[in-house]
Amino acid sequence: MSRKSDKVEDCLAESRSPCAISNVLDIFGDKWTLLLVRDLIFYGKHEYKEFLASPEGIATNILSNRLKRLQAAGVVNEISHPENRSRKLYYLTKKGKSLLPILREMLVWGEKYLPEKTEVMKPIFERLKKDEKGFVKEILGRLRKWEKEYLPD
After folding, report:
1. For residue 57, which phi and psi values (nearest 5 degrees)?
2. Distance (Å, rounded) from C-alpha 66 to C-alpha 7?
3. b/e for 72-110, b at 16 or more Cβ within 10 A?
4. Alpha carbon of 120 to those of 105, 110, 126, 130, 132: distances in Å?
């Protein structure tokens, strides 16, 4: 049985398939990667320690690998923390922010078909149901506000 490689360069090497879904899964097809994007988009997490505190309990070696994978794919970038240069702040690139509709649809699907397992996401889902366009605008506005504060022009 072949095992998916955890090496960043392997996941982003030459495409192994002419199928777009297969190639997307090479980047996002594990349990952890989209959860990091979720934390950046919905929960405003930007630091390594904040990702570690997520309820799913990601291991440090996996977190480090997935952040590198997301950076290599151009989905996430990093800057030095302004208060402590040895720490990093991670943020979504334009490519990363374009995943918002996918996560929104996953949220809607999960609420519809797995309602007993999505309690923690209820506040986000309720906000989405109330005003979908306003929800997306609010999320993107929060991301822009963070970028204005932390990213150089």
Report:
1. 70, 55
2. 10
3. ebebbbbeeeeeeeeeebbbbeeebbebbeebbeebeee
4. 17, 12, 11, 17, 19
CA distance 29 to 69: 12
Q: Output DSSP code: residue 117.
A: G
Find out whether 92 and 76 touch, Cβ atoms under 8 Å. Answer: yes
List strand residue ranges (DSSP E) for 26-137, in order.
76-81, 84-92
**Would you tell me how many other CB atoms lie within 10 Å of the CB of residue 111?**
18
pLDDT in tens, the chain (153 residues): 344 455 555 556 667 788 998 989 999 989 999 999 999 999 999 999 999 999 999 999 999 999 999 999 999 999 999 999 999 999 999 999 999 999 999 988 988 888 777 777 888 888 888 998 999 999 999 999 999 999 987
CA distance 48 to 53: 9
Q: What is the pTM of this model?
A: 0.86
**In this predicted structure, what is the pLDDT of residue 122?**
82
Which structure tokens are listed for 151? 């990213």
Of 74, 72, 70, 39, residue with least CA distance to 57 = 39
